[in-house]
Each structure stands twice: as structure tokens, then as C-alpha cells.
Amino acid sequence: MMKRNPYLKIGLTIIGLLMLITLFAPWLRSADPAQIDAAQLLMPPSSAHPFGTDQLGRDLLTRIIYGARISLSIGFIAMGIAVAVGILLGSLAGFYGRLVDTLIMRCADVMLCFPTFFLILAVVAFLEPSIFNIMAIIGLTSWMGPARLIRGEILSLKEREFIQAERALGASDARIILRHLVPNALGPVLVNATLGISAAILLETGLSFLGLGVQPPVPSWGNILIEAKSTLGVAWWIMIFPGLAILVTILGFNFIAEGLKKIIG
Amino acid sequence: MSTYIIRRLLGIIPLLFGITVVSFFIIRLAPGKPVAVEQSLNPRVSPELRLRLEKQFGLDKPLHVQYLIWMKQIVRLDFGRSYIDSRPVMEKIAERIPLTLGLNLAALVLIFLIAVPLGVRSAIKADSAFDHSVTFLSFLFFAAPTFWLALLFMQFFSIQLGWFPISGLTSLDFEYFSAWGKAGDSIRHLFLPVFVAAIGGFAGLTRYMRSNMIEALRQPYIATARAKGLPESAVLYSHALRNALLPVVTILGLSIPGLLGGSVIFESIFALPGIGRLFYEAVMTRDYPLIMAEVVITAVLTMLGNLIADISYACVDPRISYKER
To answer: Is residue B2 part of a domain?
Structure first.
């Protein structure tokens, strides 16, 4: 399966390495990501600080590694919420059809009208931009893709013989949906969810870059880049490294999605 | 055809209703119940602000009454007055819409002009070095965050090479320029923002165009066209390309919310006075009437964009309106 699928191989390697790095963050960089060092302000990359230091003399590599923890977990959890809600609503719509279907899919259509960024920012304006809120908001505004996919798959699956057989055996709706329909419809959702993780990470970094996401001093790839803007033309390393971290991560997830697409066909 | 259009037009009624309901629930998120203790715990909403909100949206009345009050205002396009300068919110938005729409339309045109030829060429030369490098580049640009690219371009093109101004809409001595000078000055200011706005979409559309074209080239009518001895260019450009281009219309429609959402970021970075930056400022200053108005208006704009895309798709491809009947 992996042999002829370079996309999947590269993608899994990137994301696997990244997860190891975030897992072992405290052992990799012994410094505290919030450690301020007044003697080391805006130092270019050196052996002590491979990625240089920021305006407060904090080690950029350490901050990027700890930022990875935040950005990755927001990506995974937000997408987890979106997929869970999407599977629930999509399978209800596909299985029961008629009014339930119309109602749920109209809701999805309505949600799709809102430019995600406007909706999220509006909610953030009313709530605290805590990490939990950001995960929840991104998750609850991204369920429409998975819901539509699941619904489409279930519509084509539910008339098939094995489902009819199950029904004839007297299986309950819940059993048919959970044991037979959803597992068989998961393929395309998996691809969509992988792409969704990238989208969620990009949303989070964008929000944090605007100062409305993860709040300093907690490092996130987005809020590290706020400093890149104020040090534009002065400290290239603050701009290059966090951006590359985002780029490589998103590439990793997108490669996995591309590889999965090839497998599922 | 006309039944299809009428059906689609009727379809926007529930959508409009849904948009207002969702937006309405965002107001309800405003923290702090009428209990004084809770307000004082929330530093974001001061008691005066809460009072203003209550007055405008009737927050002390039952839910459905609140909704009706709000609806009555917005069907008259009255979104209230800004908390910051007391100007009508609609007026503030209206004067900024042309810039954002113009930028996004320019970005759409740019996306189209770059992505279609690249995608088509990749498909024709599938698996060539050209195809691989286009694929690689589109993955790269698709993965790069817009705001980071904006920073990189500012650093490289504006600071190091000095080709473009860093931000703003016009130079300081703008009024002293000739008409041509003014046009040139505006273009120099808008080039980077439009380019940055286009990059994400261009990468996606190139991939999409490539797979469409490959799919079209596999169709039996292509074999027929070749068999009857048409020159290869006619086969490619008038038979395959035409069919591969059709679905792109809907993709352009679908990219509107992304572009509008992106304008919050690039208008803030490049300091351009469009509705994106206005929205950002409204969020930063908690100017609730302005926030609500922008949420509703951008959703309606997106809906209209999709509607136009769908109808024009049905116009160029009659199969659609038959299928959906």
C-alpha cells in the first residue's frame, strides 16, 4: 500500500517526526519557551540559538517547538469536533431523508454562506479567545464538508443488499447507521478530514497572527509571526522559521490527503 | 432553463432566513446575563456596553421578539450606528465595499489567467517535468499561509528591491500626480495585495483544471474528434478545453467566501481601507453593530456570488438545469 505511494510516505514521515518532536519537546530544548534573556535580544541564528532569538531574547526554536504543540492540537481537536458533528448530522440526513435531510442540509448551506473567517472573528469578538474556544469555534464552523460527504455516501449505500439484509434481520436504525453505514462511508471523509486539519491550523495561525487567537505569552506559530511583522527588514529569522514550520506541516497533511485519495481511488 | 432560475431564486429565501438566524445567535453569545456579578467578571463587556446592546437588540425581551426587532431593522438595511463614531454602520460599510470587491475581482481574474493555462498545459503534458514542477509549486503555494507570503513579499519586493510600497492605498504626494501617475501609483500599491490574495486560489484551481482536462481528454468524443482527423489543436482547445472549463465557473463561485475571509488578513497587513480591515477594527474595538452588519452582508454577498455562479453554469451547460428539474 505504501510502496507506490510517495505522497503518503512523505506526508506520514513529516507529520510523524513533527509529533515526536512535540511529544519530546522538554527533552529536546531544555530552555523555557518564555525565558526572557535581556542580553540576547534579536540574535541571529547561532549554535546556542539555531533559529535565533526574538525581541525579548527568547529562543525561537524552543518557541516554535512549543508552538507546534498548540497549533497541532488545535488542528486535530478542531477537526475532531467537525468530523464528529459532520458524521452525526450527515448520517441522520442521509439515512432518514425527507424533512430531516432537508432541514440539516439547509443548515449546512446556510453555514457555507458565511466566510469562515468573518464568522470566527465575530464569535471571538464576543467570547474570550482562549485555546478551548478557538478549537470549538473552528470545529463548529467546519462540519459541513464531512456532513455532505457522509450523506452522499450513505444515500448510495443504504439501498444496497447488505443493508436490506440487515434490516430484514431486524437490526435497529442505530445499529445499521453505526455498524454498517458510517464505517463504509468513512473513506472520503478521512481525506476531507486530513485536509481539514491543515485548514484548521491555517485558520488558527491566521487568527493568532491578527492577535485574536492564542494569546501571548503562550507561543503559537501565528502569534510568533506578529513579531515578524514588527521586525520586518530587521530580523529575517523571526519571519522565516515559524512560516516554514507552518508550510512544512500543511504540506505534510496535504500529502497524506493526496496519498489517501490515491488509495481510496 | 427559466424554471431552474426561478427555483434557484426562490431557494435564497430560506438561506436569507438562515443567515439572519445564525447571525442573531452570535449576538446572543454576548457574555453576561442580566446578573450583575457575571458582567463584572467579564472584562470584555462593560456595563454601559451591555446596556447599549440591550437597548439596540432588546436583549431583555423574549427571544423571538428580539429576533423580530432586529429583523425589522435589517430589512430596512438599518444596522444601527457605530459605537466608535456614531455614523450609520451601512454608510461605513458602503464606502469600503468597492475596494474589497475590486481587489477580489482582480484576484479572481488573476487566478483564472494563471491557473487555466498552467492546468491545461500540465494535463496535456501529464507526467512531464513541466507537469511535476507545476504540481510541486501548487502544493507549495497551497500550503503557505497568506499572511506569511504577504510578509515575505513585503520583505523581498518592497524593502529589499523597493519595487512596491509597503502598505496603504496611495503615496503621500498622490494629489500632485497626473492622471496616469495616479493610476500607476494605485497599481503599484495594489499589486502585491492582489497577488497575495490570488495565490491560494491559483494553486487550488491549477490542480482542479489539470484533473478536469485529463478527465475530458479521456472521453469518447475526443477519440471521435481525433478519428475524424481534426488537427490536435482543435481537439485540445475547442473540444477538450471547453468541457474542462465548464465546472470552473462553480469553483470560482465557491472561492468567494475564502477570498472575502482572506481580505480581513491582507487588508490588515497592507493597511488597505476595505471591509476586511473595517471588520478587523470593529472586532478589536468590539463595535457590535458593525460586526453584526458585516457578518450578515458578507454572507449575503457569498450567497449571491454562488447564485450567479450556479445560474451562469446552467446557462453554459444546459445539462445541469435538466438534471436538477
So the answer is: no
pLDDT in tens, B23-79: 888 877 665 443 333 444 455 566 676 677 666 666 667 777 878 888 888 888 888
Please give the residue range of the domain that contains residue B125. 97-316
Q: Which residues of B touch A215 (CB under 8 A)?
A: none
Chain B residues near residue A223 by CB distance under 8 angstroms: none
Long-range pairs for A231-235: beta carbons < 8 A, 24 or more residues apart: A231/A42, A231/A55, A232/B151, A232/B154, A232/B155, A232/B159, A233/B155, A233/B159, A234/A42, A235/A42, A235/A44, A235/A52, A235/A54
ipTM, 2 dp:
0.84
Q: For the domain made up of A6-19+52-264, give the CATH fold.
A: MetI-like fold (1.10.3720)
Of the candidates B15, B140, B261, the beta carbon closest to that of A113 is on B15
Domain contains B6: no
CB B104 within 8 A of CB B196: no
Angle at A241 between CA A237 and CA A246, to 5 degrees: 150
b/e map B265-299, b = 16+ CB within 10 Å? bbbbbbebebbbbbbbebbeebbbbbbbbbbbbbb
DSSP-derived secondary structure for B95-146: TTHHHHHHHHHHHHHHHHHHHHHHHHHHHHTTTSHHHHHHHHHHHHHHHS-H
Residue A232 backbone class (left: φ over 0; alpha: ψ -120 to 50; beta: rest): beta
**Quick one: closest CA in B to A211, which residue?**
B284
Please write the tens of the pLDDT for every residue from B237-247: 878 888 888 77
